[in-house]
Amino acid sequence: MESTASGCFPRYSWLDFLFAVVGVCTFLFDIGSDVWLAKEFYQHGEFFWFAALLGFMLVSSAVVQMFSWFWIQYDSQLDNYDFQTAGRRVVLFGSPKRVKLTCFLHICQLGFLLRHISAIWLGFCVWWRGEKGSEYAVYLTHDLSMLRLIETFCESAPQLSLMIYIMLHNNEARTIQYVSMIASTTSIAWMVVDYHRSLRSFLPDKSKQGWLSSAFYFLWNLLLIAPRVVTVALFTSVLPRYIAAHFLCLWLAFVLWAWLQDTNFMDTPAGEWLYRATIGLIWYFSWFNVAEGKTRGRSIIYHFFALTDIGVLLFSWWWLRDPETTQSYSLFILFLVPLSYVLGLLVKTLYYCSCHPTLWQPVGSRKVPGDTPDGAVALVQADSSAPEVVNKRMAKHVSNFYSTRTLPKTETNG
């Protein structure tokens, strides 16, 4: 996203339009592949796997649709903002005249797809035709980034664990299954990077995340998420009846932790509890900052707990595994899984010490002190020249990831 002339707000670019097109194609491909896999399970009489896969799909879709609908309700006050795109007033598709149709589409699980199509159409009008509405196009892009992240951890991550478990349960796997597993893990890590880049593009006074920084950010997320997904599958392969209890105990603890951090991302109590429940699911697989302030301590606590839990799950699998059927890969997994997580932590530390975007920004051009891991100093400040439409949800997460600290007025003015 490029900055406006005033440098106060990102402007919609051809790259944003490309990502919107790729996003809807990926969304449709993901649905198609899930339906195809579910059909394969059903045709082969594997009704348990069919039901599990279908359950992940339905729960993930329902959660994403609820977030999308809540946000439409919250954004209803923006309906009077005139973008004058294509000679007509462009408003949120949650406007009073369209609210029934929009509600019906969300009930039919089509609200997320509607957002993708709206982003593509408005992006085409803004970028290709050169019409007004850049602020709203960026607004939609930010929301889609968050919704894709939610979908990733509600569906892709647990579904990947299920796929690995099926491979272990059947004690056989084809090359395409290995390729699919690697591709899914890579996709999850990339979605985290995409969301982080979307966060940084929202900040008017932060240096952009370059390719080197993005590569390191992607790598450490890949190294941290992959062993978590694998150990869940390994534990399930030896104690399938206990994985639900393990998940529920950790999920409830994570939801309680989110509540204790007094999150206020949504605008209603019901929406906030939905957000906390989703954060609990995300934390089951990966760290995600949800509160302002320096969060290095919270991050250390989380990673120490996650590493301990991975060790417990891995030891349980090693102790209860079948030595004959796991002989070919047991030692490899026992060594690689903890090594991957430790390497991920090292790469994360290296990222913040050497490759963080602020470190590449000329000292004289910085408007605020350099930021630190997940508790960075930043200013999300109002500007009289900023556009009227600001994505408050993204601004809230920006203040969480780059926590605001009060500075003297002379410093905040640059």
TrEMBL record:
Give the reactions, separated by semicolons, that this protein catalyses.
a 1,2-diacyl-sn-glycero-3-phospho-L-serine(in) = a 1,2-diacyl-sn-glycero-3-phospho-L-serine(out)
According to its record, how does it sit in the membrane?
Multi-pass membrane protein
Q: Which UniProt keywords apply?
A: Apoptosis, Cell membrane, Membrane, Transmembrane, Transmembrane helix
GO cellular component terms, alphabetically, are: plasma membrane
Asked if the Swiss-Prot or TrEMBL record annotates the protein with the keyword Glycoprotein, the reply is: no
Biological process according to GO: apoptotic process involved in development; engulfment of apoptotic cell; phosphatidylserine exposure on apoptotic cell surface
Q: Where are the transmembrane segments?
A: 12-29, 49-72, 175-195, 215-235, 242-261, 273-291, 300-320, 332-351
Q: Where in the cell is it found?
A: Cell membrane; Membrane
Record's superkingdom? Answer: Eukaryota
Q: Does the keyword Transmembrane apply?
A: yes
Q: What is its main location?
A: membrane
Family affiliation: Belongs to the XK family.
Q: What is this protein called?
A: XK-related protein
Q: Which organism is it from?
A: Pygocentrus nattereri
